[in-house]
Amino acid sequence: MVIDEQALSELDAEQLREVTQRLLAELRHQRALNEKLTYECALLKRLKFAAQSERHSADQKSLLEDEIDADLAAVAVEIEQLQPPAAAPEAKQQPKRQPLPAHLPRREIRHEPESTTCACGCRMQRIGEDVAEKLDYVPGVFTVERYIRGKWACTQCETITQAPVEAHVIDKGIPTAGLLAQVLVAKYQDHQPLYRQENIFGRAGLAIPRSTLAQWVGTCGARLQPLVDALKAEVLGHRVLHGDETPVAMLKPGSGKTHRAYLWAYAPGAFEATRAVVYDFCESRAGEHARAFLGDWRGSLICDDYAGYKASFSQGVTEAGCLAHARRKFFDLHAAGKSQIAELALMQFARVYEIERQVQPLAAPERLQVRQQHSRPILDALHQWMVLQRQQVAGNSATAKALDYSLKRWAALTRFVDDPQLPPDNNWIENQIRPVALGRSNWLFAGSLRAGQRAAAVMSLIQSARMNGHDPYAYLKDVLTRLPTHKASRIEELLPHRWQPIDI
């Protein structure tokens, strides 16, 4: 607003007051706009070095090829599981596998009958043996396990007896459960693409083609899926859940381009005894994916303010907000401009979190009592203070946005005060989703929807094992060893929070 000095001198008192009010309003608007731009500039500077682009190289193309091989192997396993048992096929010539390198160490595992006395009472004689070799791997060292099955014959009734060999996840392949566990852990915990693993194995003495590794990954993903389904059912059996999501690039079929998919994560509440997390890979961030995962579940869901959860709240799910998100708005505001309003808000949040540290080890009744006695007055006073402050700041300022975030969600943000099983924030699930975010720089994108879903399934088991203090390699090796002969009705025994290794 520009006013000429001569024109200003000709105005009467009423007109001067009107001009003054306009100038003050414009000044307040400019101050709010300047505060907003200063806040955004400071926030962008803090994030400037947080993410760097990485161009696609020839190696990235191989990642897609690996996923296609893994998808094909997984589909083959699923088709095999759906088909009814067939009659014994006629003998046909099978392609001959190249023998494993002779220089690798061997460990013999002998299978002999418990008794060499025939059913007719005669003593059997050993007439030969069958030998099968499987490739094992201890990080950095390949060994070969020789499964020797002695043949025993009875000369009286002309029968031959051999001890059976236990079933393997890949019966007709060369890998042991230890090698398969190593490949899965390297790919889904250490985020080592298969072409890198091929090079690592080459340095250990045998470069396993990445196409073969991909087939193993696909087969293991299909075999482990019933265990992941059981883990999901276990998670949905709790009244309190955490929910969060993080973006993951996924390749569009046939286009060679990527689009933004999402990995959703769900875990029992931080105060629940069960330590588990289930990842759900979906093509988008649409709320329908959350509703599909939760299904008929009705309980308290701790999450941020993403609109995708709103439909679930209208269907009986109780919303529990994240106090850390509300605090973060004021933290960013204070970091950008040393706002006094933000500083006062942060002080009150700090008092609430100090109480939470004290009630962490308490039982639920004691936790509820302390929250009602100490946290409730602080939060009530903070709410009244925020309402008064909001009346004094411009509507488009950064301060107003920080205040509005809390005021609009106050009931959900403070629900934990009346429910001792609710934590005050969603940090628990954010910690479980962080390994995925850290790994994105290595694998860049998922090669297909199936590949993303397989990654989510295996990572659910690995991260859940870590949450329970297990070594993921030892856990997966044992599970892959026992899974082929484990009863489906007792699959829950192999869940990470219930798993007990077999003492040898």
Account of the protein in words:
This protein has 504 residues and is an alpha/beta fold. It has a domain at 322-425. It is 50% helix and 14% strand. It is built from 16 helices and 10 strands. The chain has helices at residues 5-9, 13-47, 58-82, 177-188, 194-204, 210-235, 287-294, 310-313, 323-337, 340-359, 364-390, 398-408, 410-413, 427-443, 449-467, 472-482; strands at 106-111, 125-138, 141-154, 159-161, 240-251, 258-268, 278-282, 300-302, 318-320, 445-446. Strands 5, 6, 7, 8, 9 and 10 form a 6-stranded mixed sheet that branches. Strands 1, 2, 3 and 4 form a 4-stranded mixed sheet that branches. Helix 2 (13-47) crosses helix 9 (323-337) and helix 9 runs antiparallel to helix 10. The longest helix is centred in the first third of the chain and has 35 residues, at 13-47. It is elongated and about 130 Å long. This is Transposase IS66. Residues 37-109 form the Transposase TnpC homeodomain domain. Residues 116-158 form the Transposase IS66 zinc-finger binding domain. Residues 84-109 are annotated as: Disordered.
Describe the protein's topology.
Blueprint: H1 5-9, H2 13-47, H3 58-82, E1 106-111, E2 125-138, E3 141-154, E4 159-161, H4 177-188, H5 194-204, H6 210-235, E5 240-251, E6 258-268, E7 278-282, H7 287-294, E8 300-302, H8 310-313, E9 318-320, H9 323-337, H10 340-359, H11 364-390, H12 398-408, H13 410-413, H14 427-443, E10 445-446, H15 449-467, H16 472-482
Parallel strand pairs: 1-3, 5-8, 5-10, 8-9
Antiparallel strand pairs: 2-3, 3-4, 5-6, 6-7
